[in-house]
Amino acid sequence: YIHIINKADMAASKGLKILVGCKRVIDYAVKVRVKPDRSGVVTEGVKHSMNPFDEIAVEEAVRMKEKKLAGEAVAISVGPPQSQETLRTALAMGIDRAIHVEIPLAQLEKLQPIHVSKLLAKVCESEKPDLVILGKQAIDDDCNQTGQMLAALLDWPQATFASKIEPSQDSKQLRVTREVDGGLETIDVSVPAVVTSDLRLNEPRYATLPNIMKAKKKPLAKMSPDQLGVDLQPRQEVISVEDPPVRKAGAKVESVEDLVGKLREKGLVK
Amino acid sequence: MLSSSRAALVAAAAKLPRLVTRYGYCTTAAGERQQQKPLSPKITTHPTRNDRAKDPRWKDIDMTRAVDEADVVIVGGGPAGLSAACRLAQLNAEKGTEMRIVVLEKASSVGAHIMSGACLDPKGLVELFPDWQERGAPLHTPVTGDKFYMLTEKRAIPLPLLPGMPMHNHGNYIVRLGNVVAWLGEQAESLGVEVYPGVAAAEVLYTEDGSAVKGVATNDVGIAKDGSPKDSFERGMEFHCKQLIIAEGTHGHLAKHLINRYDLRAGREPQTYGIGFKELWELSEDRWRPGYVEHGVGWPLDSGTYGGYFIYHLNEGSPLAAVGFVVGLDYSNPYLSPFREFQQFKHHPHVAAALTGGKRIGYGARALNEGGVQSLPKLTFPGGCLVGCTAGMINVPKVKGTHNAMKSGSLAAEAVHEAIGSGEIEPATYEEALRNSWVYKELHSVRNIRPSFHLLNGRLGMFGGMAYTGAVWYFTRGREPWTFSHGGTDHEKLLPAKDCKPKDYPKPDNVLSFDLLSSVALTSTNHDHDQPPHLTLYDDSVPGQVNLSVYDGPEQRFCPAGVYEYVELDDGSKRLQINAQNCIHCKTCDIKDPTQNINWVTPQGGEGPAYNGM
């Protein structure tokens, strides 16, 4: 007698399988400097860390594991060799294993969300996660595109700017509260789905030393864009990167008459 | 101005007995205001000053720590600590012994808290790695030219640099020490040393009977600003080791604790210090002279204030120069602002000539030790030892300490290796080895130069020091039979504000000189805002009662990061506000606080400045 266990039963009994994206970006507290040739910003020797929204995504996946809502959490990063450090941090926070899609240096600066979403989509084909959680945007390019593009490529539902994720009893649906301009919106999406994390989803834990040491033993697999069959031809060309204009000093006025007079002078008021 | 109705209300209120306000004033029935001790809201919430065992908020929190064992733990991944680690690994390979060597570094990456000139004497490096060039050590700029100037308000007078003088730099390299240290970290890892950046050693652990050191504990995380536990609270872990090497740099906080506990300064002078500033400038190509080294003294410092400057032109592809300024922390005027002296210095025509057309791209500051041999503590204690700047090995006239730090790390490694082999608790051979080495010879020979600044009660100031160096030291090279004293601690030398004149500094022009906050931004320093300030006070009431009223709050001026601010409250009184997030871990406040009320402890690991090749 052979009992065939179908995938849905497995998922339900073991919990959701979660894929979490993390990006290595310049640390948020660093004073960023434009390169003298204005082709980009200085990154050499500059402190980098995991994108803060991705930390929140990792934390959410780990919490779902701790609540037994998720069975396995996998972290993935698309980036240079140093992205491994970012993945090790995710592993130290409680992720089970990591995948590093290594991008050669020459193509790194021209990498765009369209490429990343295609790479992630390919990985999803083989990993078959139930839920992909990404940070809503990276603090270096502020694109806010990868999650949405990924959902479109996979033809999965998307729930962006999540401030709460609640799987249903049978793990076939997610109730997601989203932060929108008018307030909070709650939607139900079916699994599998793409969710992007917003600031108030949770407060990430610290990666402490005992966990960092344990994380060294967790598996970290490497892949290349060629293996995944994704072409990294840039679709956009950066023409120049400049400092924002220096804020000019304002002028203080003593009275309302003064203010109106100045506005008239500048032709802003008739 | 109060409106008449409001004034009337105030007058009426003054006549009524009033409850004590939160600022501790009360009005007696007769309408007199009596000042009570200001009930300032608690400033110091750090667990080192507030016992969590007695705090009800910590009642149900599990405080057990994970424990791990290593043979040697090294606190501090700088030149001294990493040299000790590498030397230990080399000795193990040579002698076929096996040891687990762990380096704990509080910066987020090895080298990120390194702040130095630096004009490196390669002696220490060559002894550790004779093949440093093949290994790719980033020493790219041999010194090609060397000058020394005396600055007056308008002129720059060149002074002769004769061979043999401590400031003569032939054979040395201009380096970005942070990058050299990062390279040293890679060498250590390739030799099998475990290097953990982002981890701060917060507490020294002792054996049951308290006599010997048995290891360290790393910092706890997840404590809120008010001292209560957050959801993310996690206890640090313990490393138990056979030998602990403290390599925290100048005025380390664990070193301070150990020096007190084992009375390591008995029979020796206290340490004296300077504060060093450094900016990295991208010069205009036509003013860039790769390999050129310049040192100098004088304007704008008055003759009674020790200090000097350096300008080092790097040769690493782009026209970078390191511009730095040191002010001795034995200055007496509480109105002096070392930061503003530095900013003003750049306006000297001679200095402005080099910097005009350039762009400032980095800033940082760090205390440095100036005490030399007179101030070296006993270097070993049961269970460990002190290496590098944490003990205090800078050759002050040479303005160099890295080579000594590296050599002391190597010597400590040899002593520690021996002690572990023989089961000795204290690596006692280290101190003797250091005394017999070129480190001690060098420090001994220049021991009288820095204190000669105080000759004739400091009336000659810098002239006295230079006269001594030229007239006496050049011939005796330190063989003179006397040893000058530093004359006490730096913090004792600060005079009350009423005896001093406020200083008038020019406004920054944002081209050559800059304001404090935009400078601090360049350090990329950051600390989790929701944690107890790591600048702790032994007594919260002292700043208002003594620092401010007697010394006019000098911490507002000697902190190079704007951590200390006296803010005015509604009732006109002033309260100390500690902006711990700005701290760049320079340790100057712990050194110069006239009341010695400030105790710097380590914040969470991974925090503080993010220097890039400084």
TrEMBL record, chain A:
Residues 228-247 are annotated as: Disordered. Keywords: Electron transport, Transport. One of its GO terms (cellular component) is mitochondrial matrix. It comes from the Eukaryota. InterPro entries: ET-Flavoprotein_bsu_CS (IPR000049), ETF_a/b_N (IPR014730), ETF_b (IPR012255), ETF_beta_N (IPR033948), Rossmann-like_a/b/a_fold (IPR014729). SMART domains: ETF. It holds the Pfam family ETF. Transmembrane segments: none annotated. Heterodimer composed of ETFA and ETFB. Identified in a complex that contains ETFA, ETFB and ETFRF1. Interacts with ACADM. This is Electron transfer flavoprotein subunit beta. The lineage of its organism: Eukaryota, Metazoa, Spiralia, Lophotrochozoa, Platyhelminthes.
TrEMBL record, chain B:
It comes from Macrostomum lignano. Coiled coil: none annotated. It catalyses: a ubiquinone + reduced [electron-transfer flavoprotein] = a ubiquinol + oxidized [electron-transfer flavoprotein] + H(+). Keywords: 4Fe-4S, Electron transport, FAD, Flavoprotein, Iron, Iron-sulfur, Metal-binding, Oxidoreductase, Transport, Ubiquinone. Its cofactor is FAD; [4Fe-4S] cluster. It holds the Pfam family ETFQO_UQ-bd. One of its GO terms (cellular component) is mitochondrial inner membrane. Gene3D superfamilies: 3.30.70.20, 3.30.9.90, FAD/NAD(P)-binding domain. This is Electron transfer flavoprotein-ubiquinone oxidoreductase. Residues 31-55 are annotated as: Disordered. Residues 36-47 have a biased composition (Polar residues). Its EC number is 1.5.5.1. The lineage of its organism: Eukaryota, Metazoa, Spiralia, Lophotrochozoa, Platyhelminthes. Accepts electrons from ETF and reduces ubiquinone. It is an enzyme of class 1 (oxidoreductase). Residues 574-603 form the 4Fe-4S ferredoxin-type domain.
